[in-house]
C-alpha cells in the first residue's frame, strides 16, 4: 500500500476522485491495478492543471505514491512490462464487467453489481495509459456506465429494472451524490478474477451481447454483498469451464517460415500469449486456450 498521504483533492481534479478511490480500495487486493489507477490520475491530472500551486502539490504527492508502489512491485512483470500490465488491468476490468452483467441478466439487482459496472468503466478509462482504447473497450465502458446509471435510477425510484441489454438512453450516474445519500454504494469493490472477454458488442442498442458458454461469474467474484447494502447475500458457486477444442485447421497451417510476418503481427501474437498467461494465473483454461489459438493462427497464417 502506498505510504504517502495525499492532500485534499483540488477542484480541478474532481473528475479523478473515483479513479483514485478505486486505486485505494484495491491497494491490498490488486496492487498492480491500484498502481495503474494512480498512474492514470497522474497523467490525466498533468493535462488538466500542472501549474496551480494546489494542483502541483497534489501531483507531487501522487508521484511519491507511485514511486513507492513501483519500488514495492519492482519485480512484478505487470509493472516492468507494459503489455503484461495492460493485459492484467484489462482482464480485471472485463471480469468485473462480466460479473455485473451476469447479475443483471439473472435479475439480481443490488448496489454491489451497480458498483461493479461503474468500477469496470473506470478501469477501462485506466487502460488509456497504455495507448488508445480499442473499440470493444469503448463500447464496454459506455454500456457499463449506462447500466450503472439505469439500474441505480430504477432502484432509487422504486422501479424494477429490465434485465440485459435494452434500448440504451443517455443517463448520468452521479456516484458522489449517491455516496452522500443514505443509499450509498458499498465501499468494497467486487473482486473478479482475470480473463479476457469478448462479447462482440454492437455499436448501438446493445441487443447482441454474446456471453461465451460457461462464462458465468467466477469462483472468486464477491460471495456476498456487504452488510451495509441491506441486500441478501447469495453464494456464487464456481461453474465448470467449457474448454474450447483446438481448431483443426491449425494442424494443417503452413509453416511460419512461409509466412511474412510484420512487427505488428509479432506484437499482437505476444499480446495474445500474455493474455493467456494472465488467464492461467486465475486458472481460466478456456480463455487461455482461446488466446493461444489466436496467437498460433496469427503466427502460422499471418491472419487473425
From TrEMBL:
What are the subcellular locations of this protein? Answer: Cytoplasm; Endosome membrane
Question: Locate the Vta1/callose synthase N-terminal domain: which residues?
Answer: 16-157
Segments carrying the region annotation (Disordered) are: 158-200
Give the source species: Terrapene triunguis (Three-toed box turtle)
Q: Does the keyword Signal apply?
A: no
Instruction: Name the lineage.
Output: Eukaryota, Metazoa, Chordata, Craniata, Vertebrata
Q: How does it sit in the membrane?
A: Peripheral membrane protein
Residues spanning the membrane: none
Compositionally biased region (Acidic residues): 168-179
Protein name per UniProt: Vacuolar protein sorting-associated protein VTA1 homolog
Instruction: Name the family the entry cites.
Output: Belongs to the VTA1 family.
GO BP term (any one) = late endosome to vacuole transport via multivesicular body sorting pathway
Outline the extent of the Vta1 C-terminal domain: 263-300
Q: Which GO terms describe its cellular component?
A: cytosol; endosome membrane; multivesicular body; nucleoplasm
Q: How does it assemble?
A: Interacts with VPS4B. Interacts with CHMP1B. Interacts with CHMP2A; the interaction probably involves the open conformation of (polymerized) CHMP2A. Interacts with CHMP3. Interacts with CHMP5; the interaction involves soluble CHMP5. Interacts with IST1.
Instruction: Cite the Pfam families for this sequence.
Output: Vta1 (PF04652), Vta1_C (PF18097)
Whether Transport counts among this entry's keywords is yes
Biased composition regions of type Polar residues, renumbered to the chain = 185-200
Q: Which UniProt keywords apply?
A: Acetylation, Cytoplasm, Endosome, Membrane, Protein transport, Transport
Amino acid at each position: 500500500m502506498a505510504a504517502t498521504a495525499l492532500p485534499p483533492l483540488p477542484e480541478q481534479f474532481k473528475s479523478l476522485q473515483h479513479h483514485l478511490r478505486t486505486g485505494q480500495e484495491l491497494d491490498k487486493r490488486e496492487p498492480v491495478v491500484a498502481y495503474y489507477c494512480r498512474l492514470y490520475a497522474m497523467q490525466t491530472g498533468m493535462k488538466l492543471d500542472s501549474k496551480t500551486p494546489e494542483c502541483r502539490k497534489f501531483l507531487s504527492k501522487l508521484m511519491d505514491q507511485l514511486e513507492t508502489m513501483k519500488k514495492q512491485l519492482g519485480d512484478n512483470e505487470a509493472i516492468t512490462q507494459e503489455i503484461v500490465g495492460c493485459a492484467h488491468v484489462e482482464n480485471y476490468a472485463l471480469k468485473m464487467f462480466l460479473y455485473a452483467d451476469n447479475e443483471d441478466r439473472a435479475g439480481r439487482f443490488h448496489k454491489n453489481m451497480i458498483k461493479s459496472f461503474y468500477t469496470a468503466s473506470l478501469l477501462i478509462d485506466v487502460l488509456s495509459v497504455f495507448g488508445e482504447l480499442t473499440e470493444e473497450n469503448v463500447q464496454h465502458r459506455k454500456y457499463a456506465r449506462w447500466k450503472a446509471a439505469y439500474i441505480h435510477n430504477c432502484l432509487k425510484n422504486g422501479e424494477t429494472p429490465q434485465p440485459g441489454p435494452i434500448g440504451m438512453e443517455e443517463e448520468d450516474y452521479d456516484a458522489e451524490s449517491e455516496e452522500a445519500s443514505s443509499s450509498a454504494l458499498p465501499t468494497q469493490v467486487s473482486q473478479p478474477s482475470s480473463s479476457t472477454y469478448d462479447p462482440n458488442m454492437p455499436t448501438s442498442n446493445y441487443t447482441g451481447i454474446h456471453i461465451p458458454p460457461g462464462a458465468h461469474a467466477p469462483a472468486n467474484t464477491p460471495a456476498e454483498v456487504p452488510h451495509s447494502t441491506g441486500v441478501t447475500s447469495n453464494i456464487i458457486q464456481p461453474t465448470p469451464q467449457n474448454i474450447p477444442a483446438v481448431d483443426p485447421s491449425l494442424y494443417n497451417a503452413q509453416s511460419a517460415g512461409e509466412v511474412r510476418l510484420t512487427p505488428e503481427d509479432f506484437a499482437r501474437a505476444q499480446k495474445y500469449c500474455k493474455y493467456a498467461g494472465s488467464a492461467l494465473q486465475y486458472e481460466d483454461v478456456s480463455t487461455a486456450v482461446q488466446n493461444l489459438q489466436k496467437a498460433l493462427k496469427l503466427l502460422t497464417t499471418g491472419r487473425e
